[in-house]
Amino acid sequence: MELRHANHCVYKIRYHMVFCVNYRKKLLLDIELVNFLKNVCFEISERYCFEFDAIGSDGDHVHLFVGAEPKYSPSKVMQTIKSIIARQIFKKYPEIKNSFGVVNSGVMEVTLEQ
């Protein structure tokens, strides 16, 4: 991860987001669904200039390690990603319509060098 340069700032912003399936149902064990989710994430990265450094799933939740520009707040990044992923998944897999939610974990480690 390198520093990114914009017009008036230099930044390296990364968010660890966890999206959970409602009631922790084991819906993400299907490899086809997980691959579809990864493809949707890559489409989002091209459209919104987000950087997905890692995408992983564990049956009932998905971990996303995402980089974004400073103009996007963490809540806006999460809202954009979740709404597009949910819309695309529900369009292709309507049988899982009422089984997707979101959880945000706030544990981060900050290192400052003097």
UniProtKB/TrEMBL annotation:
<feature type="domain" description="Transposase IS200-like">
    <location>
        <begin position="10"/>
        <end position="114"/>
    </location>
</feature>
<dbReference type="InterPro" id="IPR002686">
    <property type="entry name" value="Transposase_17"/>
</dbReference>
<protein>
    <submittedName>
        <fullName>Transposase</fullName>
    </submittedName>
</protein>
<dbReference type="InterPro" id="IPR036515">
    <property type="entry name" value="Transposase_17_sf"/>
</dbReference>
<dbReference type="GO" id="GO:0003677">
    <property type="term" value="F:DNA binding"/>
</dbReference>
<dbReference type="GO" id="GO:0006313">
    <property type="term" value="P:DNA transposition"/>
</dbReference>
<dbReference type="GO" id="GO:0004803">
    <property type="term" value="F:transposase activity"/>
</dbReference>
<dbReference type="Pfam" id="PF01797">
    <property type="entry name" value="Y1_Tnp"/>
</dbReference>
